[in-house]
């Protein structure tokens, strides 16, 4: 059965489906020796597909839950030679990459896989998968500020989707110097959590992602990872089948 080229590339772990489309448009893909740039092309299992003249391998999909430490880049490589998430997977032979990103100075739960189709589903905004963050912020947000977070605040000229908030810690003697706030969002805009707290006048000093959908860090420590169980992968697919 023939399938779209970008879908086959994604499943082979080349990149997400959207990134695979960009690779095709750039003329970096050959099918049976011929350069293709059209996104609508379909390929069969017998076709030879090359990216940058390297044949793509039909790897078995793998899935990992990773506790990303701070000061680590959520990319496969880094032009500034900073430590990347890949440095923590030396024994994994498959061509894995992160699902979405966490900022360089943000720690927490990050999924790693070579399944481009699932990556595309999980990062697509229409599925609205909840992500839970714990932020240490400057000062204590006012009631009005917390209400704005729950209703949506303007960042980069666009209002954020409603969020859930919970104060985890706020006491520091008679004067509140810092507060720890739990924030649940389903969007994935660039630096979104930091910009949301900045918008209400309480800049983030420290940030961690503690939950992704139903997945939590459990007993993992920074820099550790574990394979996802089949039931967990199936549940992620069910969440994005709706």
UniProtKB/TrEMBL annotation:
It is an enzyme of class 5 (isomerase). Keywords: Isomerase, RNA-binding. It comes from Nicoliella spurrieriana. One of its GO terms (molecular function) is rRNA pseudouridine synthase activity. SMART domains: S4. PANTHER family: PSEUDOURIDINE SYNTHASE FAMILY PROTEIN-RELATED, RNA-BINDING S4 DOMAIN-CONTAINING PROTEIN. It holds the Pfam family S4. One of its GO terms (cellular component) is cytosol. Residues 3-66 form the RNA-binding S4 domain. Gene3D superfamilies: Alpha-L RNA-binding motif, Pseudouridine synthase I, catalytic domain, N-terminal subdomain, RNA-binding S4 domain. One of its GO terms (biological process) is enzyme-directed rRNA pseudouridine synthesis. The keyword RNA-binding applies. InterPro entries: PsdUridine_s_RsuA/RluB/E/F_cat (IPR042092), PsdUridine_synth_cat_dom_sf (IPR020103), PsdUridine_synth_RsuA/RluA (IPR006145), PsdUridine_synth_RsuA/RluB/E/F (IPR000748), PsdUridine_synth_RsuA/RluB_CS (IPR018496), RsuA_PseudoU_synthase (IPR050343), S4_RNA-bd (IPR002942), S4_RNA-bd_sf (IPR036986). Its EC number is 5.4.99.-. Belongs to the pseudouridine synthase RsuA family. This is Pseudouridine synthase.
